[in-house]
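Known limitations

Structure tokens in this collection are predictions and should be treated as such. Users comparing against experimental data should check residue numbering before alignment. To illustrate the layout, the record for 2-succinyl-6-hydroxy-2,4-cyclohexadiene-1-carboxylate synthase is reproduced below. The input appears on top and the generated tokens appear beneath it.
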Amino acid sequence: MILAGAQRAGKPGYPWLVFLHGFSGDCREWQTVGESLTDYPRLYLDLPGHGGSAGISVSGFSNVSDLLASTLLSYNILNYWLVGYSLGGRIAMFHACQQPAGLSGIVVEGGHPGLQNADAREVRLASDRRWATRFRTEPLAEVFADWYQQPVFASLTNAQRGELIALRSRNDGANLAAMLEATSLAVQPDLRSALSAYNAPFYYLYGERDEKFAAIAAELNAERHVIPHAGHNAHRENPGAVAASLAQILRLRIKDTL
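Generated tokens:
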């Protein structure tokens, strides 16, 4: 079994960019940014429970990481960077900590490395279970209207919030609920120690108005890029700046290998 996705050709010798979207997104989420990086072959994946992978269910992060490895092998992708947002960023970090062959570096936007105490895990687990129940039983437009009122999305304008509610409501609620539970932050390992030992390039992007993830970024052994005029969903709110950061990162890292 492999994940669905969309691929784009690039120049020979350039590493692949493999893009992982956030919760309730799909393979289109990163394409505005990715299509400015035409030298690089790109693969935009649908995570389990989303888009063309909606029918794929997983048991946890190890299962997702194995699926990602199988998918990359099926495309014969042997030299790649992972670029992930939020849930996709958490998956990228977990996958990197497995030290997979061929992974040249990771770029994470607004991804959480993991909760550090049992009380926080219990609180998050209860919260995610409540959301999962709502995704299974209520109209998605109503659930997402409340979802995007969470503090992490406070920088969104009413128009941006309405656009996201309409877009995300095209999903299947039961599939989203299953993925939310399988990849809850409550069940994710705390990756800080493993990330400190990760010996490949690690970059962390966050919006200048995203105070929560600015603080998280400061805890990590990663080079930080602040995206101006953006909150938590920086690549959607300011795609040009995120694309410029990616281009700079890649230019510095691969110029001597081509």
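For this record: The mean pLDDT is 96. The CA atoms of residues 24 and 168 lie 6 Å apart. Please report discrepancies through the issue tracker.
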